[in-house]
Every structure is written in structure tokens, then in C-alpha cells.
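note to self: the first set is below, dont mix up w the second
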Amino acid sequence: MPKTCSEAATRVSLNGVTMATRWSVTADVGPGLDLDVLHAALQAAVDEVDAQMSPWKPDSDLVRLNRAPAGAWVGLPPAIMEVLARAVQVCRLSDGAFDPAVGDLVDAWGFGAAREEPDADAIRAARGQARAPCHQWLDLDEAAGRVRKLGPLQLDLCGIAKGYAVDRMVEVLRRHGVAHALAALDGELRALGPQADGRPWPVAVESPQAGRRAVHGVVGMEDVAVATSGDYRRFMRLGDLRLAHTIDSRRGAPVLNNIASVTVLAPTCIDADAWATALLVAGPERGLLLARRLGLDVLMLLRRGNGIAEVGLGRFGTAAGE
């Protein structure tokens, strides 16, 4: 049953399946809102993102772009054009730490659609490819809604698409007159206003423990987004090494540093998602320099010996190590 949170608002929860995970919305709503219509609109929004940007769907716009020959213009719908434009910007601003031009490496290491475990021949082939950050090899004609690759580029948008999908859910909520909500997709969340009683939405920052759910801390959210990237949910082990599913294009291999997780707060979830990925790849020293230069709100949890150390910037700046 919905929980009454004030005389004028009722707490409701909506959820569904997309992108091999679940989306959810917790909202404080007024009377008269058709929840079935709202649920259908939310599901349609995330499904559109999945249909355009999934590397697993053979008919997605992303797969169509990846299959196109270098130099050929490919017409694309507005949503994926928006995501590609932001991906190129973050790639440039992060000096290539965020780089979606790693689709061949993602597949070769067993994290993509092609295979479920690393393939040595595929890894050697991917590493042998001429490679440059996507902002150097991707030409966007935003006015015409078209893109061309300037080299043998295979894109993977998994480091940004879920954040964009959360932003799309927030747009849907606003269109339906919802002013107090928390939208989530996997580890990406965005708060629309505070709760109806004026309190911020409490969101847990997970403790980076593989195979166990635990809370490291709680952040209060109001009109802000949060995303976390780390090595503790999806990873592989090679001997004593824990390799995160995020690919470092400079190494041609999964990220290998002492960052357990990076949590980023940003006005939009597309930015929180992309910058969490970028800082994880950049590593603690380079990542913190980049975050300081850009004024990001960041919490890094670092593996040191058998423990975890915090380094915080911005809203997280009271953490040890600042």
C-alpha cells in the first residue's frame, strides 16, 4: 500500500526491467496522477535508450554505427546523438580517461556482447589496432543528426547510457507534474526536488565489498545526481589480480589501480555517470587532479593494505585525505 508522507502527497514506488537490470522511481505524488500512464511513460523512456545504445541488441543504432565503414556518414536519432556529443566532450576534458572507443577491447576481455571470458587472440588483435580517443576519431554533425567514424572505431556507451536514461526518467516525471522523486537505474540515481516533507532523499554510498551489500555512508540529495563506478560488483580475477569491467584504453586492458570505487555528484546523471568512469580509469593521483581542476564533487575509496581510505572533494571534502 502507498505510504502517506504528508496531507497532500502519497509515497509511491514504480519499477521495471531494462538494460539487464532494473529501474525504479520513488515519488511523493498528489491526488489524480494516473500511475499506470506514468509507469508506461517511464518504461518507454528507458526502453528507447536501450534500443538505441545497447551493444547487445543487433538492431540498435549503436551497433549500426559500429558496423558502418570508416568515413561513411550514419544518420542517428536525437537521443544517441545527444549522448555521443556529451561522450566526446568528456573524453576531451578528461584527456581520454573517459573513452567509449573501447568496444573491441570490452568484447575481447569478455565484458561485452561477443564473449563471456577473455580471448587472448582477440585481446592481441584489439591491442594491435590503431587507436585514438573518440574525440579525435568521431565526427559529429549535430545539426544534420549524423556521425562518421574517421578510423576503425567500435564504440561502447555503457559508461554513460544508464546515467542518460535516469535523466530521461526525470524528464518524464516533470512532464507528469511530479516534483518530489528519486529515480534510479543500477548504481545511477537522480533526485527531483526534496521529499515532500522537505527533507533530502537519503542515498547510500556502498562499501566496496565484493559479494556483500553494506553501507559506507549516506548522502542527502535534492536536485542532484549521483553515480558510482568501482571494482567490486562486476570484475574478473586473474591470479591475485582483481580486474574491474571498466577498460583503460591506454593499457588496452581493464583498469588496474587501487581505487575501489568513485562516487560523483553532478547536476545531471549523464555527467555523474561519465565522470565516475573517467576518474576510475584516470587513477587516484591523476583523477584527483582532474576532479579538482573541474570542481567535481567526488568521493574516492582507495584500497590500502587490508583497509579502505577515503579521499573527498567538494561536498565530500571533509573526508580524510583532502
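second set (the one i keep forgetting abt)
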Amino acid sequence: MAQITRSTLPALVSKTIYKNFTSSFDEYPTVIPQVCDVASSDGAFELYQEIGGFRTLVEKNEGAPAVSDSPVQGPETKINNIAYALSYTITFETLADCEYGKILNQALEMGSSAAQTREIVAANILNEGFSSYSTADGETLFSTIHPLLKPGNDGQSTFANRPTIGSSLSEASLTIDMDNIAEIREPGGLKQYVNGESLIVPQQLNVRATKLLNSELEVDSSNNAINPYARNRGMLPKGQITWQYLVDPDAYFIRTSVPGYRFQEREPRRLREDMMNREMSQE
């Protein structure tokens, strides 16, 4: 077991240190409320059930019965509440000989560890969505062949969470994305009214996204044409979100008006002292 002793932090038991320089750094603000549907939970897990609705109406001849239809139950999503924790053990002698109690408290502060763990866990849904993170239907999150519970009126039986061919962030790629978003189906195969709301990018695409969403005229062009993605055009009205915990420097994401990116919390962050490891000492 790792243990903090006087030899671990020797500067704190001397009389020469002035300040713990790491306390001068600021934390990146959380963006989880902007990209996720934050939900509270009071159990070990929560279940979410997919149900497909009715198809479009079918032409009926006079006196003939209407074609029968019914909703269809789809796969069930189970979200487990996972505990994350970190602990430390510090010796009595270190506490007794520490000349700088405030600086020691700063050095032992776990708030940054907790805050960054929270962001990493949430961002990993996107980071792993192309390869290892699977949804209830067995496909990866960004699969192009998610099965519908019922075929659409046009016979379409699958839907895609990304373009078939990936491309770099640009006005042209955003236009393809918006066209694809307009074709999103609900589980029963009917078209669903969905709007793009915000653009989520890693730090490496921050400047590019800023130009695309804030330039009044067409970006990287001498054409005197309007930029359809400028905020006042309304196509991505909530602007861009730069998330420093996204790991692919080329991947970008669009948050739509449909809920689904769920971040579930059972308990807030808290610091707890383990009473079982207390000891009585005298020197």
C-alpha cells in the first residue's frame, strides 16, 4: 500500500518552502451538462427500454377492415452506476513535522482528480464509440447499420450514426451531416424531427470550429456568400463546445435535439475519512 511519509514530501517538513506551485493551475470547466443528459439515480443501475411505434397509415377500401399494427419492443439498455475512488495514507510523523499545513492540504487535494475522472468517463463514450463502445442493439455507437425495429415506409431497415465515408471538419462535411440528421428514424421506422444543436470538437479543432460557426461569410473562400452555419443562421444555434478530453484530433460530433447521451449520477463527489485506519499516537 502506498504511504505518504516524511521522505515522500521532504520539502513540506523543511522551513524553506513558500508555496505549492501546482495550486496555481486552474481546472478546465466541465462541459458535461452541455453535451450530456445528466440524470440522477438511486439504485445500482437503471433500465431504459426502446419501443417502436406505429407505421404510417395504409389505404383502406370501403367496408374493408383496417390493417392491424402494434408497437414493437426493442432492446433494453442497462446503465450501471460504477464507483470511482482513490485513497491515500499519511503517517502521523508527517502530519506532526509538516511546517506548512495549508500547503500539505493543497498537495493532498483530490478535487482535481475527481473532476477530471468525471470528464474522462463521460468523454469516453465518444472516444470509444467507433470501436469498442456498443449500444443495446449490439452495434458500436457510431455504426452505420443500427437496425430499426420496423422497416420505414420506404423499406429502410437500418440507420447510421455517422456518414459512411468520414471527412475532415468543413462546411461541406457539416452539410452532409445535416442532411443525414434530417433522415434519422425513430425505432418504428418513421422519420423523426431532429435538429443539430451544437458542434463538439477536441482542442485541435477549436480554431477551425470557431471560424465555421462565427464567420458571417463563407469560410476559406473569396465568395461573398453567407455562412449557413453562423450562429445567427440557426443551423447549430448552441455553437461549439471544445472538450479537452476528446482524444482523436480529427473527430468531431454534433449534439442533436434528441436526448440519449445519458450521464447518470448516484452520489456527488465526497471526501471520506476511513475511521478504521485511525491510530492513537503520542510523541
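remember for set 2: Confidence is low (pLDDT under 50) at residues 17-21, 278-283.
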